[in-house]
Design a protein that fits this description.
- This protein is about 30% helix and about 40% strand.
- It is α+β, with helices and mostly antiparallel strands.
- It folds into two domains: about 30 residues; about 80 residues, OB fold (Dihydrolipoamide Acetyltransferase, E2P), CATH 2.40.50.
- The strands form two sheets. Strands 1-5-6 form a three-stranded antiparallel β-sheet. Strands 2-3-4 form a three-stranded antiparallel β-sheet, with no helix packed on it.
- The chain is elongated.
- The relative contact order is 0.17.
Length: about 110
């Protein structure tokens, strides 16, 4: 029978692995960043009868530009402003907002 000293590296390794997995899951669940965009229906691809994919230029609250893709179940209203919640795996959710809801740096990127 093995002594506890011989099993110690395996026990420590297992504990560290479990902690690492927990940290990764926590980070993935709690990481989110907000981006803003304006709908341009010329940048849409119809994937199926009930699925569309947008590929739009977005801006974070500081006005930093980033191109994002996201899917919807319908064509969205032309020129509507959206707030996109982005997580590790991509766009998690979106909601329509008004021009006044956009951060000042983002407002500078769009005309009213």
């Amino acid at each position: 029978m093995e002594s506890i000293k011989e099993k110690l590296p395996i026990i420590i390794g297992t504990i560290l692995f479990i902690i690492l997995c927990g940290c990764v899951l926590f980070y993935m669940e709690n990481y989110n960043k907000i981006y803003y965009t304006r709908i341009d229906n010329t940048k849409i691809e119809k994937l199926s009868a009930k699925e569309y994919e947008y590929k739009l230029v977005t801006y974070d609250k500081n006005g930093k530009k980033k191109e994002l893709k996201f899917k919807t179940s319908r064509e969205l209203r032309e020129t509507a402003f959206l707030e996109l919640e982005v997580r590790i795996m991509g766009v998690h959710s979106w909601k329509e907002v008004t021009y006044g809801d956009l951060p000042k740096e983002v407002q500078k990127k769009y005309s009213k």
